[in-house]
């Protein structure tokens, strides 16, 4: 009997160690399963949040298209931005809609906040949009509060800066004034941009005696660094 007791005492630690090791392996397996479940849940939550955000953006755009501020004579084609400029010097984006959606070269591009730019190249299923911040862009504009007229173009301070140029020194322009597209028409010639699309607000006004025009800096209403969806203004009559 003493030998049996001694044997029991000797074997028990090994059985206990084996049980502990088995429990440890099982716990690790359960933890791995739990980790994968948590990761899958996290991905599901992210996807749902992304879908909600996209739906809100699209609803905002569609409300603008159906609203009173949408330009007459145009229909809106909503498209996702699928390509961004490789550098600050290339102020262009690519969108996932083209001629198959009725888009043509020189169609204006906007968001619900304001003017984005102009379609400059088109394929059947895509298009290149040159942004208003590009050095080649220029838009006839007026100050809504005073009707002072000028040309909005790229500023020299940074890639997203805009200026209102060619505004006479006697014109009244103040900080906070809203600048919109002029939408001019002369005979058979007319602006590529319809009247009344918001561009930006005046953030500084200056002039010197030697200057022919005021020096007007604008704060763009569109955040060109975070464009995700845009609206192409397609004329109902071409």
Question: How would you characterize this protein structure?
Answer:
The chain is an alpha+beta fold and 238 residues long. It has three domains: 1-67; 73-132 and 225-235, Rod shape-determining protein MreC, domain 1 (Thrombin, subunit H, Beta Barrel), CATH 2.40.10; 138-224, Rod shape-determining protein MreC, domain 2 (Thrombin, subunit H, Beta Barrel), CATH 2.40.10. It contains one helix and 14 strands, in the order H-E-E-E-E-E-E-E-E-E-E-E-E-E-E. It has one helix at residues 2-65; strands at residues 74-83, 92-95, 108-110, 115-122, 127-131, 138-143, 149-154, 162-165, 178-181, 185-186, 189-190, 198-206, 215-220, 229-235. The strands form three sheets. A six-stranded antiparallel barrel has the order 1-2-5-4-3-14. Strand 1 and strand 2 (92-95) form a beta hairpin. The termini are far apart. The relative contact order is 0.15. The model is unreliable at 1-8 (pLDDT under 50).
Summary of the model, kept short:
The chain is of the alpha+beta class and 238 residues long.
The CATH architecture of the largest domain is Beta Barrel
Instruction: Figure out the total of helices.
Output: 1
Helix content: 25-40%
Tell me, what is the CATH class of the largest domain? Mainly Beta
Radius of gyration: 31 Å
Strand content: 25-35%
The number of distinct structural domains comes to 3
In terms of per-residue confidence, which ranges show pLDDT below 50 for 5 or more consecutive residues? 1-8
- The geometry reads as elongated
Total number of beta strands: 14
Record the strand order, biggest sheet: 1-2-5-4-3-14
């Amino acid at each position: 009997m003493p030998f049996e007791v001694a044997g029991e005492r000797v074997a028990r630690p090994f059985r206990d160690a084996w049980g502990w090791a088995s429990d440890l392996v099982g716990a690790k397996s359960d933890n791995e399963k739990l980790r994968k479940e948590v990761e899958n849940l996290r991905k599901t939550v992210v996807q749902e949040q992304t879908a909600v955000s996209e739906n809100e953006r699209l609803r905002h755009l569609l409300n603008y298209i159906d609203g009173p501020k949408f330009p007459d004579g145009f229909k809106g084609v909503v498209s996702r931005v699928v390509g961004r400029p490789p550098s600050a010097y290339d102020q262009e984006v690519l969108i996932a809609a083209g001629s198959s959606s009725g888009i043509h070269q020189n169609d204006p591009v906007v968001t619900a906040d304001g003017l984005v730019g102009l379609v400059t190249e088109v394929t059947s299923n895509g298009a290149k949009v040159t942004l208003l911040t590009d050095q080649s862009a220029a838009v006839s504009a007026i100050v809504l509060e005073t009707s002072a007229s000028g040309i909005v173009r790229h500023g020299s301070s940074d890639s997203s800066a805009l200026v209102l140029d060619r505004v006479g020194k006697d014109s009244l322009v103040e900080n906070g004034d809203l600048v919109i597209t002029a939408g001019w028409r002369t005979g058979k010639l007319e602006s590529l941009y319809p009247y009344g699309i918001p561009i930006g607000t005046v953030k500084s006004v200056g002039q010197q005696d030697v200057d022919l025009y005021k020096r007007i800096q604008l704060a763009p209403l569109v955040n060109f660094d975070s464009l995700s969806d845009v609206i192409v203004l397609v004329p109902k009559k071409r």
